[in-house]
Amino acid sequence: MTSRGPALRALLGVLAAGAVLAGSSTAIDPASSASLPPTLTPVVGVARTVQPAFFGVNGARIISAPNASEWHDPVFTQAVAALAPGYLRIQGGTTSQWIDWRTGLFDQSANSPYVGANAGRRPILMSDWADLLRATGAQPVYDLNVTTSTPADQVAMLHEAQRLGMPVTHLELGNELYIGDKTYKALYPTGADYARAMNHWIDVLRTSFPGVQIAVSAADTSSSLFSAFYGKRYTSWNKLLYAGIRGADAVALHPYWFPTPADGTTASAGSGLAAWKALSTKVIAQVPADLHVWLTEYNQMDVPFTEVGVPSGLLPGAKQTWAVGLSLAAFSLQALADPRVTMAVVHSALNGEPTAAATQSGGNMEVHALLADGSGGSTLFGRTAENDSLTPLFDAVRDQGSGPVEVRLLTVASAPKVTTSLWSPTGVSTVSGVTGAWIGDRLALVNLSSSAVRITLPSAGPWSATVQTAPPRTRPAFNPGDTVGSSTATVSATILLPAYSEALLSQR
User: Fold this and answer.
1) Residues of the chain with CATH 3.20.20.80
2) Residue 199: how many other CB atoms lie within 10 Å
3) pLDDT in tens, 99-138
């Protein structure tokens, strides 16, 4: 990234203001003092349908030599398969823009963020991705290299993918090209320039793959923090893109949210719902009606914002806790129930603590791991809190068969309220402590609050219920001995959800 001086000083000012906010009483979860009604009745939303492959996993991180080698481990393959992802995003995000698909090596030109990263690193080849897809049953989403490659070269890659047995059904044109990387700015000065260039790419791709679905890269402008940091090119990107793009099927968005340290202090699990509200009202609502929305990366983001130039060590890094896992599950349920969203791919399959060997492109982040990478004393390929919270949702969608799955959002307006404070999207928000969805013949319910609640089930049952719960600061895979507890029972009419819990129910 370049030209960080004035923008970085402005960002540090925002962080300082956030630190004051983090210490204020407004960030305290009020649920512990609220009087709860004996039974809460959810409102069942309008039905929409999704494909069984709705949820997926981003093919990251693959940068450092230790991480890259772990992608070749059969134990890792088994652990990814256990997640039951519907999609696997190939070859990650930023990495896809700087990698040679024939060799699996990173571009070593002066502007590459991966200079020196090839040393000692075992490449991940197209044949390796094919093996992983066969083992997991996932469908590929190809993040095409529109930075250091050409349409003809990427078509050749996709033909090679077909030769290896991988279908070509979903293509994403680039990754976060609206950020301040100087190469991206030179290639695509504005969203209009990107649209003109991608119109040619779309024509070429449809000639070779007539039925393929294609998404263009749009910015999550719900964040005043990033809007201020990246400036006019970022804030005007979507409007200019939408005005000029022709023949695309979807936009690809990457929503990330940054809670203040107060959320960790109060064990707030509400940040995902607050982030969803900002994304849906400020960004998704502006997407042209003829374009679907793909979330090809999403998650809570680490602090101290090392990916946008904030000095490392300024603030404590975020830890992945059970509260974070529940927050991510709540966001995922909103995406699943939104009729505009047709794909939700979580970042990332593998991650861990920042290390000297994993500094490129912002370094590793514990908070992103679905599987721990063994760094910092973590359990190698250990299931994390996010893994525990998302696997039931992935299973609920994929296990419904091969046809469309009906989904209805469950809203519980009378639930205890949870207050969360975010640096991005900036502000303090109060959200419902309970959310859920009816997914085919399953029910998913999440209690984000610090109080137990009783929920009226939308159908009498009987239901077979599996309930997961743990103290909110529990850190499975990263803290030795920490686990998320699970219990099963048969329930009818109502279910009691413990504090900080997730339940998956199926009709018997």
Assistant:
1) 52-398
2) 15
3) 999 999 999 999 999 999 999 999 999 999 999 999 999 9
Query: Which architecture characterizes domain 19-45+405-507 according to CATH?
Result: Sandwich (2.60)
Respond yes or no on whether the N-terminal peptide bond of residue 471 is cis (omega within 30° of 0): no
pTM for the whole thing?
Answer: 0.92
3-state secondary structure 5-31: HHHHHHHHHHHHHHHHHHCCHHHCCHH
For 161-218, the pLDDT digits (tens) are 999 999 999 999 999 999 989 999 999 999 999 999 999 999 999 999 999 999 999 9
The domain defined by 52-398 folds into TIM Barrel (3.20.20)
Distance CA 438, CA 82 (A): 23
User: What is the rounded CA–CA span in Å between residue 496 and residue 447?
Assistant: 10
Indicate the residue type of 450. Answer: S
For strands 299-300 and 213-217, give the pairing: unpaired
Which residue type sits at 152?
Answer: A
What is the number of alpha carbons within 13 Å of residue 65 lying toward its C-beta? 8
Give a three-class secondary structure readout of 97-156.
HHEECCCCEECCCCCCCCCCCCCCCCCCCHHHHHHHHHHHCCEEEEEECCCCCCHHHHHH
